[in-house]
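Sequence design from tokenized structure. All designs in this work follow the same two-part layout: the structure record, then the generated sequence. An example of the structure record is given first.
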């Protein structure tokens, strides 16, 4: 859902999101507790290229390097035991061009799989870790305390959406491997599924303008940020609600 021409403070965005369920605290502060943060509230994630003083980040800034993994296809907070449900991303400032967000429909992607593949995926569990997605970019300089704050978690590869009752893939760049399968085979399977799910017929691209509030359901979509001129300011802020439980505790 897209709402144009909104005027929201951080507090208003958080209060609005709270109508839809408990809110995840930002994982950014868990893995960057030693740096200065720009936003005061723990419930809001700073999806921007600005440092703690509101200046465009240098190319080697650790939060900028960490945030580059948002260009991978992912679903918010799948690396938490209780993953994300709804995300609400609000645009304060957008660059002149670029910086779109693309969304992939994982329900339609599941429906399009051959029956033999659906059968193969039944009961599979993937391990999700934010450190895996960052490690793919060789962004690995995290303290033991930061790593311990977000341990790997298991999630179903196929789940049933609690609202529509439709089967949907649940995959992301955070998914490291399939539990019980050789790591190489599991990673190839996950890569094949992401490639399948991100065919153009399953993907929508949103071009941002200032004041846009975009809401999506992480339980049945993936998304990714697209490149832009990082000398220009891009200031988006996200609030994500918690799902009701781990996918392992919900219907397969």
């Amino acid at each position: 859902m897209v709402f144009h021409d909104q005027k929201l403070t951080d507090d208003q965005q958080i209060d609005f999101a709270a109508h839809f369920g408990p809110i995840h605290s930002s994982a950014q502060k868990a893995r960057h507790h030693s740096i200065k943060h720009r936003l005061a509230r723990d419930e809001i994630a700073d999806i921007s290229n600005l440092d703690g003083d509101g200046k465009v980040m240098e190319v080697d800034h650790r939060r900028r390097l960490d945030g580059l993994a948002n260009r991978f296809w992912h679903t918010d907070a799948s690396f938490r035991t209780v993953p994300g449900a709804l995300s609400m991303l609000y645009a304060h400032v957008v660059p002149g061009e670029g910086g779109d967000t693309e969304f992939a429909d994982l329900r339609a992607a599941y429906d399009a799989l051959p029956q033999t593949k659906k059968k193969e995926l039944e009961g599979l569990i993937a391990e999700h870790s934010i450190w895996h997605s960052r490690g793919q970019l060789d962004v690995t300089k995290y303290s033991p305390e930061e790593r311990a704050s977000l341990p790997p978690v298991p999630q179903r590869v196929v789940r049933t959406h609690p609202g529509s009752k439709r089967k949907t893939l649940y995959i992301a760049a955070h998914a490291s491997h399939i539990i019980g399968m050789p790591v190489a085979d599991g990673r190839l399977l996950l890569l094949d599924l992401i490639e399948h799910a991100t065919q153009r017929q399953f993907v929508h691209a949103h071009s941002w303008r200032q004041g846009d509030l975009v809401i999506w359901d992480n339980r049945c979509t993936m998304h990714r940020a697209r490149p832009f001129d990082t000398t220009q300011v891009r200031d988006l802020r996200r609030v994500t609600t918690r799902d009701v439980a781990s996918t392992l505790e919900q219907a397969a």
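The first strand starts at residue 2 and ends at 3. We note this feature because it recurs in several other targets discussed in the main text.
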